[in-house]
């Protein structure tokens, strides 16, 4: 019975299940949870997360703008989720346990952030897409917009697994 | 009287007063205060800040390591403080009000972070030094070590004023 | 006569003249000329340059791929040309001599390059667009494709003027 | 006889032989050879290369300074040589053929360069050291100085193997 049921789960469905698990996992990370950051959408080629402006996210009380570290956190989160989703597909064919071990050890190697506009707004949306995905590393591009669709920051990060 | 007193304040003393003010200012930033990050030492060529491990700074509950965003926040904070201190010296000769306006508008343009080792530890120290300082921009180099003096992350950032 | 003629030159025409001069200027730079890199198109928001594969541009004789330095050169060239064109528009209103002086002193502050695919091909196209443009600095995004439209490398650079 | 001779070659000697081969290999790369760049010293933790100013390396004829692409080429070369040397040590214990295959496929993933001072001078020295070295990736830090020991540029690069 179990085998037959397993057999009926397609690759797409498996990827969808993984994405839901990753979404739940990322939404439970202590630091981003404290910040109110939530992954909203997750597919094989795009991730979207949101967070609202809050007093404790302020970096400059006179200008009432987001701290650069908040922006870095949001970009690294969507980049990491995108990398995990990409790695899952890229590691197809790898023995199941091995694949899980490698996705679990995924880590950011480096990240560049360009702060393009002061972080003013009430609701911020972070998105990530894949620039490169291979058997060992993955490169993602990330953006942060406010509710007026202004581009606040852009980033590029490299992940290893 | 006032003039005579002013005359007795040397450039070094003025820089020292500015550094104390910057230290106080940085230690009151909502986001870094919530994180427990405190600037300890501030001189014309080096900044040191500290923070202790806390449950809400965790990025991966299984590995019990710092979130990459926490590391980015610490590095951007010491880099920014170093840049302000450097800009103050570089803008010597600029009319007083102008100098203050420009230091207040100092902003991160871009930052690169290299995550070199998982963020394990109980007490973390972030340091910054100047790579370049001019009339418009400043480049700083930053490092994060744990209490065992292991290098967790290194960064480079460009600031404008 | 001269004054009247000048009066009839629109801002768009002035920008077009500058772009032609920049194109000529960039195409005469010794290092890029030796490499066969030529700016083909230049507008207010996009720059395109081309170069053909040549034996002396090889970085790995066994793999017959471009040297990473060749790619960096192409990306910095289109990024710099884009920045000059962007700065010209951003500095509108600045006294004419001042504007020229500042555009002439434009310099790369920092650049990140992501090498996404081995540099194989016969004809390479480098493009640049503006991510941010202000009174002091400019951030550009660059890409290098081969004749099969494969993305070889992507970059981000910050320029000061 | 052969076995006994092999047995007398220590790990240090093997590393030294590899370094000599890498030095020869790097010094034969078409693009850097055309530029006059030569690796002078190569050890397990530092690489030094040199090149002289030449008319075709100029990026700005009025300022008579190096092209940013020349600087990128020099930094990527010493970074790559350092990464190969580091990877050789890190892959100790890996089957011999595997180790060779992986070192041969070493490639730059990403690089950041900070252009700190205009590239004026007659003789330039590029150096690289290791920031991180593992089984899959390596991060190096690079610097370029002129004959007056002025720091012209600094860089950080990530290599995969």
TrEMBL record, chains A, B, C, D:
The keyword Hydrolase applies. Its EC number is 3.1.2.20. Keywords: Hydrolase. It catalyses: a long-chain fatty acyl-CoA + H2O = a long-chain fatty acid + CoA + H(+); a fatty acyl-CoA + H2O = a fatty acid + CoA + H(+); a medium-chain fatty acyl-CoA + H2O = a medium-chain fatty acid + CoA + H(+). Transmembrane segments: none annotated. It is an enzyme of class 3 (hydrolase). Residues 64-152 form the Thioesterase domain. Belongs to the YigI thioesterase family. This is Medium/long-chain acyl-CoA thioesterase YigI. It comes from Agitococcus lubricus.
């Amino acid at each position: 019975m179990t085998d037959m049921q397993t057999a009926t789960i397609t690759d797409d469905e498996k990827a969808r299940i993984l994405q839901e698990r990753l979404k739940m996992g990322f939404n439970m990370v202590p630091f981003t949870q404290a910040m109110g950051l939530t992954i909203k959408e997750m597919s094989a080629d795009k991730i979207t997360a949101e967070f609202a402006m809050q007093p404790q996210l302020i970096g400059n009380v006179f200008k009432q703008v987001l701290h650069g570290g908040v922006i870095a956190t949001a970009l690294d989160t969507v980049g990491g989720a995108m990398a995990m989703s990409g790695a899952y597909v890229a590691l197809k064919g790898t023995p199941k346990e091995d694949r899980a071990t490698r996705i679990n050890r995924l880590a950011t190697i480096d990240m560049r952030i360009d702060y393009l506009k002061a972080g003013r707004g009430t609701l911020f949306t972070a998105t990530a897409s894949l620039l490169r995905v291979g058997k060992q590393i993955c490169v993602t591009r990330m953006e942060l917009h406010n509710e007026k669709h202004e581009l606040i920051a852009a980033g590029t990060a490299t992940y290893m697994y």
